[in-house]
Write a structure and sequence with these properties.
Number of domains: 1
Structural class: alpha/beta
Oligomer: single chain
Largest sheet: 8 strands, mixed
Strand content: 15-25%
Number of helices: 6
Radius of gyration: 18 Å
Number of strands: 10
Strand order of the largest sheet: 5-4-3-6-7-10-8-9
CATH topology: Rossmann fold
Shape: globular
CATH class: Alpha Beta
Distance between the termini: 62 Å
Length: 230
């Protein structure tokens, strides 16, 4: 009996198997790191959400580095993202997670502006989440994402750190606030996608101003990385 070529077999396989196999192949051929803010990182190549095709490939490693540097810590995640990528025994696995829409074990389904913590947090992370706040809701509130970021600062413990990633070109009002007006973060840096196969590099504000979501490559082409505290 002849064997089907692997590409033909993959086309016939369930989507979950295709993504797992493709992720394994990409991991085998991609070995170079990426650089951000003086640090060296490994691209995240994961079958969930085919990370090698979008901004998750860089923003998750950057966020996890912060978590690893601050362990043990009381952690809040705004947006239920990291559960797809963190191992179950990671020190941040017991973090508080709030997400208005996504259901999940331990996830508090509340509006970010309604969160009222009893204790401050040592680390707050939000990965490509806040651009949806006030923008993809039944009642559009263009300034709501910025208000959420300002409120999140009040939840930080002394010496705590907050890290937020935002894809540019998705929420025009949030983009405007990132470049104009009172600063939303103590430090703001940018990563931009530079190739069809998902390579990213750090860029300055003038290089990324006016970036478009989904162009020239699918998904985010630039992410802003805001950091405060610490």
């Amino acid at each position: 009996m002849s064997r089907l070529p692997i590409r033909v077999a993959l086309r016939a396989a369930p989507a979950t198997i295709r993504s797992r196999v493709t992720a394994a192949v990409v991991r085998m051929v991609r070995h170079e790191p990426f650089e951000f803010d003086g640090g060296t990182y490994t691209y995240l190549i994961h079958h969930h959400n085919t990370t090698w095709r979008n901004e998750r490939t860089v923003e998750v490693p950057i966020a996890v580095r912060v978590l690893d540097e601050r362990r043990p810590a009381r952690v809040l995640e705004v947006g239920n993202v990291l559960h797809n990528y963190l191992p179950e025994n990671h020190p941040a696995a017991g973090r508080v997670v709030i997400d208005m829409y996504e259901r999940g074990a331990g996830v508090q389904n509340i509006d970010v502006l309604d969160h009222d913590p009893e204790e401050p947090y040592d680390v707050i992370v939000a990965i490509s989440t806040l651009e949806h706040v006030g923008w993809d809701e039944d009642v559009v509130e263009p300034d709501k994402a910025a208000r959420a970021i300002e409120q999140m600062h009040t939840w930080l413990a002394p010496g705590g750190v907050m890290l937020v990633t935002v894809p540019l070109g998705y929420n025009s009002e949030l983009d405007r606030r990132l470049f104009e007006g009172p600063a939303l973060f103590d430090d703001l840096k940018f990563m931009r996608r530079v190739s069809a196969d998902g390579r990213w590099e750090q860029a300055d504000a003038e290089q990324v101003r006016g970036a478009r979501f989904g162009s020239p490559y699918p998904f985010a082409n630039v992410i802003a990385i805001g950091r405060s505290g610490g």
